Amino acid sequence: MASFWGCPRRFGAAVCAALALLLAVDGSLRPAEASGPVMRWERGTCSRPLYFGITPDWPPYQYVSPSGSPLGDDVALIRETAKALGCPLVVEITSWSRLLSGLLSGKIDVIGGASWTKERARNHHYSSPYRQETLGLFVRSVDVGKLTLTGLSSFIGTPLRLGVVADTYIGGEYEKLVDDPAFKKIVVEDPRQDQFALVATKRIDAFLTDSGSGLYSIYRNGLDDTVTLYPGYLLDNGPVYYMFGKASVDASVIPPFNKALEDVLARRSAAGTQQ
């Protein structure tokens, strides 16, 4: 099942209409004021369906088809894991900022592609890690030969504008610089996961994001001749996890979820289908 809230205009009328139809037919979106009982692991199964939230613009991990169906590696993996657990899964589609607020309020149980931080761990449970994230800088192809970027500090004192996704963990180097007033001047925060069109149209000069998603997105959007991954700058951002909201998911769910997740990853690895 899938539901949607807050359709951005950039997805177009057709996609938004399809997503709205899914919600109208499915009726699976829980009320904002009450997310229902806390999910527990009882008698070898989940006490209720698991509500998994995704953003629609982060391929190949999380995105929607033209008809509004949720797709992506994170979606496929948790579907397989939930099936192994015997837990019904409901996929909810919205913006990244609403996913985070939904976890805190209990409207959403779990999201994917989350980095571990001490601050987040106060209000969330984490699964076992399921992939490594590598960050890259995406710039206009015509600018590659003009730039000398050895790190994020290279942006300080230049007229360059660096785009980042708001409310995300973007690595230790960024965290060390983010409070520097000189660095803040060049950072442009935006809630969108897909900011490559902003690079192409010169609204920003570089976009710091997951390198795999970036390469996939520029090809998918026909921007691979205009926007490119800057050579020589790749940053290991560590593992990513499924992140559960403590407001709606009891800690008893995490060990069996991790066991099922690790079993799925092991089977995929053995079969040569690890994503």
Automatic annotation (TrEMBL):
Keywords: Signal. Residues 52-143 form the Solute-binding protein family 3/N-terminal domain. The keyword Signal applies. It holds the Pfam family SBP_bac_3. Residues 1-34 form the signal peptide. PANTHER family: AMINO-ACID-BINDING PROTEIN YXEM-RELATED, MEMBRANE-BOUND LYTIC MUREIN TRANSGLYCOSYLASE F. This is Solute-binding protein family 3/N-terminal domain-containing protein.
